[in-house]
Specification:
263 residues; 47% helix; alpha/beta; homodimer; six-stranded parallel sheet
Chain lengths: 263, 263
Amino acid sequence: MIGIFDSGIGGLTVVKALQKKLFHQQLLYFGDTARTPYGSKSPETLVRYARQNTEWLLEHGAKIIVVACNSASAAATVQLRKDYPGVPIFGVITPAVEAAVTKTRNGLIGLVGTRATVSSNLYGTYAKKMSDGKVQVFANACPLLVPLVEEGWFSAGETKRIVKKYVHPLRAKNVDTLILGCTHYPLLKQIFQQKMGNQTILIDSAEELAKSVVHYLDENPDSIKKLPKKKSVFYVSDITSHFQYIAERWLGETIELHKVACA
Amino acid sequence: MIGIFDSGIGGLTVVKALQKKLFHQQLLYFGDTARTPYGSKSPETLVRYARQNTEWLLEHGAKIIVVACNSASAAATVQLRKDYPGVPIFGVITPAVEAAVTKTRNGLIGLVGTRATVSSNLYGTYAKKMSDGKVQVFANACPLLVPLVEEGWFSAGETKRIVKKYVHPLRAKNVDTLILGCTHYPLLKQIFQQKMGNQTILIDSAEELAKSVVHYLDENPDSIKKLPKKKSVFYVSDITSHFQYIAERWLGETIELHKVACA
């Protein structure tokens, strides 16, 4: 099985992208809803949570780990690869950076994400490395967007005003490509496009992550057994009716939520 | 010592109110920043967190426990009193309800709070009991206000618009008293007053909680030793520079943050 973890609900955009591309494959999802969100937490705490989530997925049959959360990817992917050397671990940052570096025309890339993601500076560091220093990344943390998305305010006037405020400094830098560096943000794609202008290339980090997992499976067809199609399985560390409502609205299907036992 | 816990930063409004009234008393604060916020989580999870936080405060010398978070008070105060029968435990709900029931003229009380607080229905149940069924509580959950306050957007246009949206259904019910049922909300007091109108009586749950603790100490002068004045002590389960910044801005003094070891 492919194991996916996220701070809570955001990683479901990755599930959706993966399900579209890997319709035969059962996914095992873990959303850490008891400790969500991750975007405001420190790297040390995120490494600890990422390890616990990875352990849980491996114990429950995952052979591949997908870190479907930018904040956790920024803080913990490198450490997870050290801790679990035999396990393919996919983070959300590298695929998005690759896409952005390939697509930018003027070498000026914008990044929007949580405070944890932005302050890690990883997007900028990777982009510099991949482009031999030719591109530059300008970042702005957008801490209010996760709660707005989780409230389902996808097209509220307030959301539009707040997105406009957040992208303003990036527009001023004349970026031609914008990385949506948080798995919640694909749900605000239209607003971002509108506020950045039609010419701006948007990079959906959930979509790029799904592409890179599919690419890996194509190259390594034996890494996971192809099983008869089964519904994906969803576990969370806390169940609330709001989560169930939002999850089903996003995925467009009913899901059965299971709660893991917590210490 | 008086032990205070909160999901993170919100309880600092209670600290501020207590420090004003009990300037000689050292406070021991625990903010669960590694798992914040509490307002979107289930009652079962909140009871588990409240027990862990109470244990920690008792182990570190607290003789009185103050639950400085409406969501945790709603979910766990009754259970904590059962679990720790010898320990005085103060929740934030009863004092606010008492104040509201005393002050309302038309018997129609509004409540704003997190989703966890509102769906507990505790404010309404207590208000009915205290008034022999004479008052009615109308509640609206305001999940976006905690993130707006934590961003320090105390007077942003977006915050004003969102507060207006949230209080609209309560204005329509003609409430004459509004309980600010979340320890973050005192920082938005002016906006609430403006959007509700000058005639509306606002009940600050942090302020009322502090009053009830002071009242208890007056009646039970031997419950806590009067020690030479010492600075309050602040522990959190996760340290970020943003927390430190916001905490010092709210309290108007520099604080030393300590991190507890987490499993």
